[in-house]
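This week, think about what follows.
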Amino acid sequence: MSGTGFGLRIGLAPPGSARTRHRWRNYRRVRLHDVCHTHATLALAAGHNPKVVSERLGHWSVAFTLQTYAHVSPGMQDELAKDMSRLVATSQHRDP
């Protein structure tokens, strides 16, 4: 029996067989929605423009995207606070 792209391939158990169920039992099904959610979370955490992420997801507004993925921002708040502190400290040293 040869693999045709649509049929069975050599060495694989037929779909629905006990061997196949045993092999895949410990894997969780991943939906396309899960993949999109992961993509958006990683993109926002990496600092990509929320407008671009929103467009890629097909969201109707950037506000919706930012509300949906607000869980990404807590660490980003700390980073912004540290950056602002550094900027203020640097500007105070420059002024006489």
